[in-house]
Amino acid sequence: MMSAGEEVRSVVLTGYGGYECLKVKPWPIQALGAGDVRVAVAICGVNFSDLYTRQGMLRELQPPLVLGTECVGEVTAVGAAVAHIKVGDHVLCYKFTGGLYRDHVVVAASHCFVLPPGMSYEDSAALPANYLTAYFCVHDIGHMRAGQSIFISSCAGGVGWAATQLACSAGDVTIFGTCSPEKHDAVRENGVTHPLTYDGYEQELLKHSPDGVDIIIDNMASSAFTINQRLLKPLGRIVVIGANSMVTDSQKFGWWSFLRLWWSTKNVSARDLIMQNRVVAGLHLGLLMERQPNTIQSAMSHLFQLYEQGKIKPHIDSIWPFDKVVEAMRLLAERKNVGKVLLRVETADK
Amino acid sequence: MMSAGEEVRSVVLTGYGGYECLKVKPWPIQALGAGDVRVAVAICGVNFSDLYTRQGMLRELQPPLVLGTECVGEVTAVGAAVAHIKVGDHVLCYKFTGGLYRDHVVVAASHCFVLPPGMSYEDSAALPANYLTAYFCVHDIGHMRAGQSIFISSCAGGVGWAATQLACSAGDVTIFGTCSPEKHDAVRENGVTHPLTYDGYEQELLKHSPDGVDIIIDNMASSAFTINQRLLKPLGRIVVIGANSMVTDSQKFGWWSFLRLWWSTKNVSARDLIMQNRVVAGLHLGLLMERQPNTIQSAMSHLFQLYEQGKIKPHIDSIWPFDKVVEAMRLLAERKNVGKVLLRVETADK
């Protein structure tokens, strides 16, 4: 099972482009290094970063490669230098450079989190990309406290859903969020005080809160970045976390729309920051994990605690068999999901 | 004493320029409005903003005008609509547009803070511009916690001195700060772990802390802003609070050096913020007070508490008679002070 040249079933990206570039097929697995663990994968989480990678936005990831930034399963082997994880543990893995959409993975132990007893695979698979990102936005950078207000763009998506729950855990908060109208009931149920549509959200927010809000989570990285800054109270914090607006359905990544978006995103001057008493931040969870793994481990421990206290509860939109990875990704690209989209790995040998 | 057209001794700026533009002379005091209090001034604080105003950097303040952004004294009259302040109270006043260097002032009650019993005039006069600014940098924006590190530029100045004490109150912190070598003993005594010189501070800081620091307070608003960003850890917060490097001794404000400084201050892009996991902020205490007076009142209450607990203790560099205002301002401009420079108002009728 761990022989050299061994291949395992994997979602392979054969080139940049549309869904036709995805193939589910056997692909070689790397050897177990001293600091690695091998995991029999049960569930994988689907993320916007998978779409970026397929479209070719992350040029440092050259196809052919295996997609997938998060998975969860049971440890089947550990390297000689791994002390805190043992065979049989249930672990959650996160690696922003991908490689985890497979029925078995070998991954560095530093990229794994041992699940607390009783936590389901499905719930835990929703945590890394979405809840960690939301956690740093709301708690660490946002420093959200009782009585404050927050605006969450795409509040029905994975990060938005998580951010809503984490904001609620601060107590007595007001939450504004954009999503398409058919999702408004669902996000209200999750804790959003004022669901807004993408069209005219600025005016609508100011109608309820003329001074603006304390925190903004912006996943668009577009001209909305400038609009959103105007919605901030003095001392308000805006966190830019992504570029969802650059993902288009089923197409190769468009350099023109990418460049147009960056151009339309005005830079921030020190003078404006001072005159507006503004705090502007960016978050890249993957790079943060590479540079400060201990910070991530401690945030995940806190998330596990919040989960056990019932303060966060991932919402699973749908679970797809491994072979339906294209349908699962399409759901995200078309923004039809509410909450997390998962893949279930079903193999005979587990 | 409160008749129409009454004049009181004041520090009047007669035009933009050098110290020759300052005259101590009688100047009309405004009538007491319903929301105002009248204060017999005991002590005034001298700040960099007084130098900016004199040099003409704040063009919205047109001479002739009375200088001075902070003072403390005893209330001698209150307007009909003032509920929380009474005659005889000791109050601290802060108004970033100035007008407080006089032996009696009329000021809006919303710009006053009633002193806790037993707090000296000298100590309290050091609080508004310096300790409030430092408070928002370290606590509110900086969100400083035990075990973290901070870099404070100009750590021997008023704000730097206050920020050092406030950072220490978080417990187990590492403090880097720049100031001229002859002040290193004094700032070390105040809590700075590693006093640095302005020349080569970047390399020196990284020698002690290769990953950078958690918080930076930057009062230069110059090309140092770009250098300083490189000294931030992921999730690190940099707060820009001023433009001290634009103040030159005894000269009229130089537009060329002003423009050169702003040009050399590179704007911040959303992309860089994301890729570096960086938080960039600006703070303008005066504008914050205009827009969110309640935020300032609650911060000042917290400062009064910290003072009573002995966690902060203003350091008075020197106290000058009112007539020596030029000498007092020169001390700041030449950066010869350590801690706060004050003026004492001595009049016969109090």
UniProtKB/TrEMBL annotation, chains A, B:
One of its GO terms (molecular function) is oxidoreductase activity. The keyword DNA repair does not apply. It comes from the Eukaryota. Pfam families: ADH_N, ADH_zinc_N_2. InterPro entries: ADH-like_N, ER, GroES-like_sf, NAD(P)-bd_dom_sf, SV-ATPase_mito-regulator. The keyword Coiled coil does not apply. Keywords: Oxidoreductase. Residues 17-343 form the Enoyl reductase (ER) domain. This is Enoyl reductase (ER) domain-containing protein. It comes from Cryptotermes secundus.
